[in-house]
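Entry for the shared binder. Reason: the reviewer on the internal report wants the predicted structure included alongside the sequence.
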Amino acid sequence: MTDVFISYSRQDSDFVRRLHEALKAAGRDSWVDWEGIPPTAEWMQEIHEAIEAADTFVAVLSPASASSEICRAEVAYAEAQGKRLVPLVARDVEPARTPDELARLNWLFFRPDDDFDAAFERLMAALDTDLDHLKVHTWLLVRCRRWTRGDEDASALLRGRELETAEAWLRQSVGREPAPTADQTRFVVESRRRETRRQRRLLVGVAIALVVSITLGVVAWLQRDRAIVAREEADRQRDLAVARSLATSSELALDQTGNGLVTSTLLAVESLRRVATAEGEAAWERDLRLLPPPPLIESEPLGEVTAGTFSGDGRFWAAGDASGAISLGKVADGSVSTRWPALDTAVLSLAFSPDSRWLAAGGQEQATVWEIATGNRLAAFDRDGTHLDTFGNIRSLAFARDGSRLYLAAEGYGVEVIAADTWRRLEPLPTPESRAFRLAVHPLRDLLVAGGFGLTLFDLATGLGQPVADARREEVDALAFSREGHELASSDLAVRVWDLEQGDDGEPLLVPADRLVAADDRVLSLAFSCARPKTAPRSTAWSRRHR
């Protein structure tokens, strides 16, 4: 692997030689095609391999290189591989004649009249920026290409410490350049999948689980002429056997390896995903006690907390208090990183944007939106300018899946809609049969449910809403979609589960799932568990009395 790949036209060879010597004197390796690759060789393959093995792609710009198809092909390939591009101007050239990948970047000028030494210092500073990140990117790209060009042979995948290094690099690459390519991500994911499979093969319990699963599958196939109920029972028993065997394997993994807690926990989760058994829950609870405790957020600096939420990516938490202040922190350490006054009233609701850039807060007849990175207020809303009959307590806020809209439930006969690009009010989503108190956005589709004295299902692509048929007319206190979005839970003095189906006209439809759980108080919060039976979704409910 090299530090720099230099792409240039032969007409600029004198400049490139000077640049090459300067890089060599600075202790940097550079790949330069001085002689040209013989026509009989797979010359473009050699060029591609050299680009892949370089940390940085330097493009020498001049009228000659701008008109060179080979130079353009080299730039395009480097861009496709996620390489950092650094354009150097050896001779003046019109930006419009250069590849788009280079035209949008900052250029370093090495023209004859420019100070070469000063420009070279700027080049070295660019090469040194985020050097460790670049070197892992190059190493991982070379390994990934070896795998893809070898017909994805499993022997070329990462294992052990190399795999741990690649996974850590992927986690730390969010928001950094160059970003991981799709092939690099797939390579690491496939390596982890194969490594996990290899570890599981070492466990006797997994082998037993596979034998039981195959045996039950053969029995089910031989008895296919039996009734559907019998087949479903066989499938359930098979999943139950696999789940119990996985739970046993979880215990074996913890006992047989000195560092098997992660594998044990994954097996316990997989057991619960199949079927929620007592053995699986016992394995999960055992591993949960052994896992490092999550960071504790001290409540004193937060004041009297009246609202709280987590960002969708799990990085941040936010809490609002009775004084109208917002506290923001990182989940990783649990500490309060910043705190600012957000409202003139108690904070009643909070919502992060999908990309965790913004935080919206709602209170009594007012709402604000804040930029998390700077703590600056982006917008404020009150009774003025609303199209709705009322604008009272804002009990619920929700961003659209793409972050382009902010929705507010403010006790009016409709849902307030705010455009995130201008922070201006748009026409509301009408709920003529009921006021809007609570909101829930579908995790995978452009759907919104508003809860008042009943439910309204909105198609956000068209803005059309459909009241949900329900004999109960209690005030809705909480709404929550399941992780896959197949079910919706709503609560008042009871918790009801709804199935999201497709109607005869192709439109989405909420249908009661015949699962109604009475409560002894109003249920204020709902959340579906992550590990639950496939056929019997469970939700967690919180009320004033049971918290």
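Summary line for the report: The first helix runs from residue 13 to 25.
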